[in-house]
Amino acid sequence: MTEILMRKVEIDDIQLLRYWRNSEHVRTRMVLQDYIGREEQRKWFESLCKKNFYYIYSLASLDVGCVYCKNIDYEKKSFESGIFCGNFDYLNHWINIFACVRMYDFAFNQLGLDRSYATILLNNTAALRLNNHLGYLKIGEIESNVGRFILEK
User: Fold this and answer.
1) Which pLDDT does position 86 carry in this prediction?
2) Which residues does 108 contact at the CB level (< 8 Å), separation at least 6?
3) With contact defined as beta carbons under 8 Å apart, do 91 and 85 qualify?
4) What pLDDT shows up at residue 1?
5) Considering Cα of 133, then 137, then 141, then 144, what sign does the dihedral take?
6) Predicted TM-score (pTM) of this structure
7) Is the CB of residue 81 less than 8 Å from the CB of residue 103?
């Protein structure tokens, strides 16, 4: 059986995340598409607090991508979720769905949250398809090309 791991992002991982995030196949599908420099990445990591959980997911010891829940509001029992597959060879692989489901299990069952929000470019067909399969519903648009979606427990 293939080993699937999820590990919390640590300081030693941030340049890998930066490399992935700046990759054309990731950056062009994100709402924020600016190139991220080394110093920006370091500051981002230092700004993380207990309201953000970022995990790298791996398949058979190969790092594949990053899944996260951030901006957690324990009072409203909500969070914002996201994923990006940094390893181009795994873009349409089942491991990405698995990583999402594991993150939702963590957020809903261990953190006690009830709803997840996602912000997605409306031309990002892969993310729209994934979120549709996961059960997200569109609740509006932030801008003409950026949708807001919700998944409830």
Assistant:
1) 94
2) 114, 153
3) yes
4) 60
5) positive
6) 0.89
7) yes
Q: Is 134 exposed, middle or buried (0-12, 13-18, 19+ CB in 10 A)?
A: middle
At 127 the three-state DSSP class reads helix
Q: What Å distances lie between residue 118 and 19, 73, 87, 88, 89, CA to CA?
A: 23, 14, 22, 22, 24
**DSSP secondary structure string for all residues of 2-51:** --EEEEE--GGGHHHHHHHHHSHHHHTTSS------HHHHHHHHHH--TT
Tokens of 140: 């509006």
Mean pLDDT over 125-133 rounds to: 92
Is the CB of residue 70 less than 8 Å from the CB of residue 16? no
State in Å, rounded, how far the first CA of the chain is from the last one: 30
Burial of 24 (0-12, 13-18, 19+ CB in 10 A): exposed
Decide: helix, strand or coil at residue 131.
Answer: helix
